[in-house]
Amino acid sequence: MQKSMSRLLVFGCSLLVLIGSRGYGQSNGPNDPPAASATADAPAVAVTPATKPSPNPSSIGRVGVGVKMSLLGAGIEVATPVTQRTNVRAGFNMFNYSRTFNKDGIAYNGQIGFKTVEAHFDIFPLGGRFHVGPGVLAYLGDPVTASAAVPGGQSFSLGGTSYVSDSAVPVTGNGKINFNRAAPMFTLGWGNLVSRREGSHISIPFEIGVAYQGSPKATLNLAGNVCDSPGVNCRNVATDSGVQSQILSEQTKINNSMSFFKLYPIISIGFGYKF
Question: Would you place residue 59 in the very low, low, confident or very high pLDDT band (cuts 50, 70, 90)?
């Protein structure tokens, strides 16, 4: 009986210990740290500030148009970008000026009629407005022309020889001065018709440089009759070899006087708008 009671006591103590251990596992003590929550906040994610996108070349503007005044006359030009620092540019210029003058007894009515086209490959080495612009200049037509006349009975000279214009068929003629049709040119300038700055549309380009046009070449043609003295030994200018020789001598003299004028200066200022 005593042995049975001892076994019952041991069983009861074991049951109490088991129940106590299960209760302790389900609750925290007063000094225990709180259990981790299943809904704990997720770690913070670093946010990188958005960077401003670089301008799209198509949104910068693809064509610039300008008007200008230069030593070649009034002009218009258009430009378009090739790369971020280069443009191609083409233009047309026109200049007219007339003047009458007398040389060696021959009355001339001169006309300067510049009609030129130009093309440039503009390079912006610093990426700003400063540029260098190698290119080519082409003359359309005859840049300098003149009509000539000697009233009948009036004396004049050709190549140092004196003649008298025939009263019946007075001397008339025409002349012209030409340059090389195409002239290489080089310019330096400030301004960009196709600015790379977004929102910039207006420009005021300025440019200086030179065009190598070669020495001017004069051509003189005369018609009518010349005489040694009024009414004496009159003959046709076109068929007299002596007079033709003197005309060529006069052309040579004119060409020699202009031989220094191989470089044509370029100075221009204008107004441009980028589309």
Answer: very low
Q: Give me the residues paired with residue 113 across strands.
A: 96
Whether the pLDDT of residue 242 is over 60: the answer is yes
Give the strand pairing for 202-203 and 73-83.
unpaired
Cα–Cα distance, 11 to 260 (Å, whole number): 133
User: What are the phi and psi torsion angles at 50 (to 5°)?
Assistant: -70, 135
In which residue are the tokens 């910068």 written? 60
Structure tokens at 43: 């770690």
Hey, what domains does the chain have and what are their CATH numbers?
60-274 (2.40.160)
Q: Give the Å distances, CA to CA, from 186 to 57, 114, 135, 256, 259.
A: 28, 19, 6, 26, 21
Residues 262 and 215 sit within 8 Å (Cβ to Cβ)? yes
Short-list 196, 194, 192, CA closest to 204: 192
**DSSP code per residue over 167-206:** SSS-EEEEEEEE--SEEEEEEEEE--TT-SSTT--EE--E
pTM for the structure as a whole: 0.69
> pLDDT tier at 61 (50, 70, 90 boundaries)?
low
CB 124 within 8 A of CB 130: yes
List beta partners, residue 95: 114
